[in-house]
């Protein structure tokens, strides 16, 4: 099997939770390395590392000890118009990070250009069995977007997961993605990823009351 990344985009997002099944015994932990501009947080089964060195991106996601994301463009925001694409992989200024109790808040996520400026605030809330991720986004003017990732997840390999169950009962089989341009889009608020060989799983559940939610895989 060729080794390319699996990408998932959530199109409309106010809040989502990342969770795994099973009993979690460890307390939530947060460690902010201000010198390196990286903060690592998680519980007994999930661990995330966020890089905020003039960017805002999750560079590492570990599920039950397995690295499923381990690169510079792991989880980030993206907005594409007809003329340009904007992402939080490159910011116009340094964001700031505040940690309080079991929360990590990233303020001042600013990106865009002279035609469109985008401001975001990210808040992660770590509990015993999941991590809640809230994104608050404002734009300098109304915009017609051709593509939005709120956020984009880029897993390390196409075979990290065998597939993903959808909330309506459907199923995305990733072995069918045998060409890089293969894409599957669906109106769903939940993706339950699994791998029977590693016996690992990950649930990503989105909440956006009053709005339509869509996900795609490529």
Query: Kindly state the mean pLDDT as a whole number?
Result: 88
Report low-confidence residues grouped into runs of 5 or more: none
Q: Cα distance, first to last residue?
A: 16 Å
Radius of gyration: 17 Å
Approximate helicity band: under 10%
Strands, count? 19
Q: Which word captures the global form?
A: globular
- Quaternary organisation: single chain
β-strand amount? over 45%
- Overall number of structural domains: 1
Structural class: mainly beta
User: What string gives the helices and strands in order?
Assistant: EEEEEEEEEEEEEEEEEEE
Query: What is the makeup of the main sheet?
Result: 10 strands, antiparallel
Q: How many H/I helices?
A: 0
Could you explain the architecture of this structure?
The structure is a single chain. The chain has 218 residues and is mainly β. It has one domain (6-161). The protein is 0% helix and 56% strand. It is built from no helices and 19 strands. The strands form two sheets. Strands 1, 3, 4, 5, 6, 7, 8, 13, 16 and 19 form a ten-stranded antiparallel sheet that branches. A nine-stranded antiparallel sheet has the order 9-10-11-12-2-18-17-14-15, with no helix packed on it. β11 (117-126) and β12 form a beta hairpin. The two termini are 16 Å apart. 32% of the residues are buried. The model has no long low-confidence stretch (mean pLDDT 88). Residues 1-26 form the signal peptide. Keywords: Signal. This is DUF4968 domain-containing protein.
Task: Sum this structure up briefly.
With 218 residues, the protein is mostly beta strands. The chain has no helices and 19 strands.
């Amino acid at each position: 099997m060729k080794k390319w990344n699996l990408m998932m985009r959530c199109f409309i997002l106010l809040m989502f939770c990342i969770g795994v099944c099973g009993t979690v015994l460890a307390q939530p932990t947060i460690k902010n390395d201000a010198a390196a501009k990286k903060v690592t947080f998680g519980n007994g089964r999930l661990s995330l590392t966020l890089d905020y060195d003039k960017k805002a991106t999750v560079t590492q996601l570990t599920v039950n000890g397995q690295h499923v994301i381990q690169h510079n463009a792991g989880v980030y925001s993206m907005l594409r118009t007809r003329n340009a694409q904007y992402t939080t992989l490159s910011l116009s200024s340094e964001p700031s990070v505040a940690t309080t109790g079991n929360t990590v808040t990233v303020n001042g996520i600013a990106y865009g250009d002279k035609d469109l400026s985008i401001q975001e605030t990210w808040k992660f809330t770590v509990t015993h069995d999941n991590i809640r991720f809230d994104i608050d986004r404002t734009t300098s003017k109304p915009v017609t977007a051709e593509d939005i990732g709120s956020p984009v997840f880029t897993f390390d390999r196409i075979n990290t997961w065998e597939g993903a169950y959808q909330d309506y009962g459907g199923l995305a089989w990733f072995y069918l993605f045998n060409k890089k341009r293969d894409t599957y889009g669906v109106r769903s608020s939940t993706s339950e990823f699994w791998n029977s060989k590693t016996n690992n799983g990950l649930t990503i559940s989105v909440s956006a009351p009053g709005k339509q939610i869509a996900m795609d895989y490529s």
